[in-house]
Sequence to fold (427 residues):
Amino acid sequence: MRDVLPPDSARRRALVARFASAMELAGYAEVVVPILEELGVFERMGEATDVVTKEMYDFTDRDGRQVALRPELTAGVVRAFVQHRPQLPWKVWCGGTNFRHERPQKGRYRMFDQVGVETLGVDDPDLDVEVVALAWQFLANVGLQQVTLLVNSLGDHDDRSRYSEAVRAHFEAHRDALSEAALVTLDRNPLRLLDSKRPADAEVIANAPRLVDHRSDEANEHYERVLGGLRSVGVPYVEAPLLVRGLDYYRRTTFELASGSLDAAQNALGGGGRYDGLSEDLGGPPTDGIGFALGVDRVLLACDAEDAFPAPDNSVVAFVVDLVGGGAARDITHELRAVGLAADRRFGGGSMKSQMKSADRSGAAFAILVGEDEMAANEVTLRPLRGHDGPGGEQRRVPRNSLVEELQRLAPSMGTAQIAHETDGNG
Ligand code: AMP
Fold:
């Protein structure tokens, strides 16, 4: 399990806030679903996937119920849909922590965060275009340029089953040429073999039956309209006929966003697709669904690699330097905060020099010096720091009761800097 420390924590929060506002501008409202659910909710994702069979943190609770920490967001959101039956179409975004018992490595953790959207109740291929474009656009807005959008269509339920059988027959006929690991996958879920990255299996995979030959006319038409829509809105894509993705519930459109700046084994920033059967599987009415999830940790790793989305500047406006001890520094700091000016101070006194070091390190725009002279005159000294100390920004004495006004005049937009950061990433 992982800790997220400053300043990474602020950057992560800014990324999620950026996602939230982008999705809300597109009509998606937030839904919050439990981190812990009945095991059955997640088992619907597919009994043949690693996520369910090998990676789930499941246990029996004190009432003897089988429960699990969520390994992904979609199943819980669709379970909430089935339970509450909101009006259709239901367009929601969701974010939070998931747990998978994977082998931890860079970009792959046992505890990781995702953000994503789900829409229920719309069959229109233009919705697929909307959802794919939202994911793509978000990554572009964050500043990532090395992202490839891979798209495929798995066909309808029956297409998928027929194709799965054809693929199984093909791999069975070539068992001798497959790796040990591939044979295990073959027995559980032959489709998963198609996106295996093991070199040993590459040749058999290359000659596998093709999905296009097994897709129904309706599924093909849906797919063509999605591709046409993506071209029309200017979202570049690469068709990936072998892209099947890990979870069992996908139908028709599937897609993945791969980063060119991460190691190939962990280069997926996110993905999604249609899951037209999931509502029924969870006991609800037949309802079309489509969504995606982005891995927050991965997106931030890609941002590191591409020098994008720096940690937000959460520095305070004013840093109070206390040269007299006593309560003045405490009261002034409180006064500034009370009107929404971001302020910090040092505790424990110390020399002017060491306190100024703290002030500089805080990134504050102004140091507020509280010394003997100032106290006697009921004033403070306002010393401009970093970037505010140019012409016109000389140090000066200010009556204590006009300090707030003075700081608000000098830094009109900075008083609310903290609040702005919370809603808008790197400002
Ligand atoms: P999935 O739910 O498996 O389709 O994953 C969607 C996205 O979540 C992936 O593309 C990754 O960016 C991210 N992700 C999945 N598993 C992990 C993990 N164990 N650690 C970090 N990120 C993950």
About this structure: The chain has two domains: 8-156+215-306, 318-423. The pocket of adenosine monophosphate is lined by residues 72, 100, 102, 108-109, 112, 114, 246, 268-271, 293, 295, 297-298 (CB under 6 Å).
